Amino acid sequence: SESITVGELAKRMGVKATDLIRVLMKQGMMVTINHPLDVDTAAILAADFGYEIENVAIDLEEIVEAAPDAPESLEERPPVVTIMGHVDHGKTSLLDAIREANVIAGEAGGITQHIGAYDVERNGRKITFLDTPGHEAFTAMRARGAKVTDIVILVVAADDGVMPQTREAINHSKAAGVPIIVAINKIDKPDSKPDRVKQELTEFGLQSSDWGGDTTMVEVSAKKRLNLEELLEMILLQADVMELKANPNKQAKGTIVEAKLDKGRGPVATVLVQEGTLKLGDYCVVGVHSGRVRAMQNDRGEKVLEAGPAMPVEVIGLSGVPDAGDVFVAMKDEKQAKEIATLRQIKQREMELAKHSKLSLDDLYKKI
Ligand code: GTP
Ligand code: MG
């Protein structure tokens, strides 16, 4: 599966196999039509013939595209929840309050690290929270076709009401087909008007269930920790309705939530595992990078050996810093992972070159 024969490559490029063999002979390779070529050679040959690397890469990309899971292999998984809302409406405070309510006393090290994703436990059930910095990350992920969020918690401050970014968040969620649970926050404030928020939200098709609609709205205070348990309960109820499932017993596949270059540790990426189980030592391909999982830790900075569906983990061992929204695929074969990453790099470079040559053409026209 890691090679393609001369004949197959020629067929795929729509050239005569003899032409291909002639080129190879010029390079000192005496081959027949059934001679297997490794992916790098195939890619270089394809490029020589002016063909897109895509045609060759397809076989390998198919490896990354996992076959659909058999229904009996699916198991319940935690919901992945993204908190959205207008600036200063209390998104971070709410997440902090929820997490603190769940932090196990005397936890090892006591060091909490920000990895952009957290998992919280309630009555033995887990909920994963994504702390996406602003809507851009969410949009970027969606543009890349990454569907990471099951439920959106829309935070609206009861003393401020629906604001531009509230509207944006509603539009994003609707476009992505993600159900919204509204958290009307800051109800401890004397000037809070939760009913006015509910009224405003009806204009966006969000009608509170206590007003006969079908949107769950919970009045909370992150500051005073009011009704946080109820909010968590509502999230789990919504998750039950959605019957969220994944197959934990296969190679992991997930999405990059955020990534950075750490001075000491190199590229560090927060991966939200979505299918399968990621294990220490796994090889992987992420966008144009490959690597091996050398260390993993959870949002509390604790080392973990594996991470199942809906679990966010910080991963060390990648060859470069991926982009948020990049798909992460664990692989058994190191060579394969490297090859896919290499092919993607070649493809990316070609696309950049194409962009530049187009730019210079434009410049040329401008001068004339
Ligand atoms: P950005 O990340 O900047 O978009 O803001 P945010 O939505 O994360 O809001 P943040 O949690 O930073 O809170 C903004 C301000 O509101 C802070 O001063 C909080 O202390 C305050 N605040 C948040 N929740 C509550 C609440 O329930 N009651 C009151 N009274 N103040 C709150
Ligand atoms: Mg914040």
Automatic annotation (TrEMBL):
Binding site for GTP: 85-92, 131-135, 185-188
Keywords: Cytoplasm, GTP-binding, Initiation factor, Nucleotide-binding, Protein biosynthesis
Residues of the Tr-type G domain: 76-245
Keyword Protein biosynthesis: yes
Lineage top rank: taxon: Bacteria
Main location: cytoplasm
Localization per record: Cytoplasm
The keyword GTP-binding belongs to this UniProt entry's keyword annotation: yes
Region: G-domain, residue numbers: 79-227
GO CC terms, sorted: cytosol
Family: Belongs to the TRAFAC class translation factor GTPase superfamily. Classic translation factor GTPase family. IF-2 subfamily.
Summary of the function given for this chain in its UniProt record: One of the essential components for the initiation of protein synthesis. Protects formylmethionyl-tRNA from spontaneous hydrolysis and promotes its binding to the 30S ribosomal subunits. Also involved in the hydrolysis of GTP during the formation of the 70S ribosomal complex.
Record's protein name: Translation initiation factor IF-2
Source organism of this protein record: Geoanaerobacter pelophilus
Gene: infB
Span of the entire protein shown here: 310 to 677 of 885
